[in-house]
Amino acid sequence: MGFLELKKEVLEKAEKEADRIISEAEADVEAKKDEITAEAKEAEARSEESTRISMEMAEKREIASRCLEAKKALLKAKKRLVDDVFEKAVEDLDKRLTDKGRKALIERLVKKAETEIEIASVSCNKKDKDYVKRYKTNEKKMLGGIIAENKDRTITVDFSFESMIEDIKNTELSKVTEILFN
Question: Which among 6, 87, 157, 166 would be 20 to 30 A from 175, CA to CA?
Answer without folding.
Answer: 157
